[in-house]
Amino acid sequence: MVELTRTTGSQRKALGIAGIARSTWQYRRNPRARVLEPVAQKDRAYLSRIPTVDRAVIAKKITAGWAGGHSVDHTFASTWDRGVMLAARRSWWRIAADIEDQSARPVVPTGRGSRTPREKPVLIATGPGQVWSWDITDLRSPWRGKAFKAYSIIDIYSRKIVGWRVEERESDHLAVAMFQAAFRQHGTPRFVHADSGPAMRSGALAELLEKHDVTKTHNRPYVSNDNPFSESEFRTMKYRPNYPGTFETLEDARGHLAEYVPWYNATHRHSGIALFTPQQVHDGSWRRAHGIRDHALQHYHQQHPERFRERPTTPAPASLVGINHLADETATN
Which SUPFAM superfamilies does the protein's record reference (predicted)? Predict the structure, then answer.
């Protein structure tokens, strides 16, 4: 290093060439004396360290407080109120965490712990008119705390919206009226799936579905992806370029949905059904469009085979659609 420093004229440059940090070089030149039995940092007797006797007293008070159903803060404050200060509040919490026997520590009750786990809903559709999903979403207004409610029923196989309405509030009888209209126009499905909102679990709707021999299923608590089709449809609506964001009146909201639903069903090229429209998949007319697409794709492949690694295939809608259903599963509704 001396020769390299003399050559470069700078120790900093020499260390940079050698790839050695300056602090490392200084330590190597002036190493500390080795300690035969070094003391770990946590065991060192620094001035601010709480004595072992005081730690034992604090631990005993905390354990006694736990037995009486009191928190660490309660025991700390009670001791302080008696004119005794053994350590800071945060130190009490650290000592509590180090107590080996935590069995006496009060357990804070939670609402989730008392719930019986709900079975995962598994629904499968092999064609339109078998499984419907529905939900309600907020349509914002300019006023704080006020939103219009958009009701929507979607056929999960074709993604077609088979029922909708916009109201000022969520109501079971409004949902019943929407389903009655959908049944008259599209027939009755085998299953209707929804989340666990009040309108979805209402007795009036349950009676209607039971009357038409329709089985209803619901999301598990705190599992938002149990209802993916309705959530996806609402996202499509709210992320369109012409979505207004807020609606001044109920009539404005209804007018927007009256234009959106026909567009979604008959014009929107849905990525989940191979870029066909929900109406095409619902009525089966997608097969003719698929033939046209495939002919054009194969012709393009013949003209430019160098642009492909293998012969391309034209995507088609899935023959089986489900909620919480994997392709390798054999479970049925």
Answer: Ribonuclease H-like (SSF53098)
Q: Which CATH code for domain 123-273?
A: 3.30.420.10
* C-alpha triplet 107, 109, 111: angle, nearest 5°: 150
Q: To 10 degrees, what angle do helices 228-238 and 250-266 make?
A: 110
The ranges assigned to domains in the chain are 1-31, 50-98, 123-273, 286-322
pLDDT digits 0-9 by tens, 44-103: 777 778 888 989 999 999 999 888 888 888 899 888 888 888 888 899 999 999 988 888
- pLDDT tens digits for range 181-205: 999 999 999 999 998 888 888 999 9
